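Progress against Task 2.4 (sequence-to-structure conversion) is shown through the following example record, which the project officer requested during the mid-term review.
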Amino acid sequence: MSNFYKHESAIIDEGAVIGDNSKIWHFSHVMKAIIGNNCILGQNVFVGNDVRIGKNVKIQNNVSLYEGVICEDDVFIGPSVAFTNVVNPRSFIERKSEYKKTYLKKGVTIGANATLICGITIGEYAFIGAGCVVTKDVKSYALLKGNPARQDGWMSEAGSKLNFNDGSTAVCSLTQQVYILENNRVVKKDNPGL
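Structure tokens generated for the chain above:
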């Protein structure tokens, strides 16, 4: 039996798996989903069937994660982020067999009121700004802004904007971690002694 906190107003359906030290707050509803250890689901969060949430994930108020959403570890989802799972919904046509997966890789941040169209992958440690409408895959460490969302730089794992002044390397101002830009992709350099 898992050791987690559930507010008395929250509903957890039979078959849901909730990890240790997770917290599920007011008026939230978890269907038959998997939630890892040390997660926080804010007020009025809905987690649909077959959703998978890794460990240390924080989901702020008023977010619905529909069937097809998969979050890896250390993801942050801001208030009122909107997910979808059908590309062309119609109320009079059932398209449950057409659900598309949306993948949030390790360390992703999604800002408040962003909208993610289904069928995309958000790469590791990508940072999606508030209010973005994301319609296509996002590279790891990418910083996106606007509607429609467009890349506006790169972010470190710690959440600091990376400046590739010489064109190929940048240092995180918060951790001194070095990052390398090659072929329009960012990778973290091994930093002995850090």
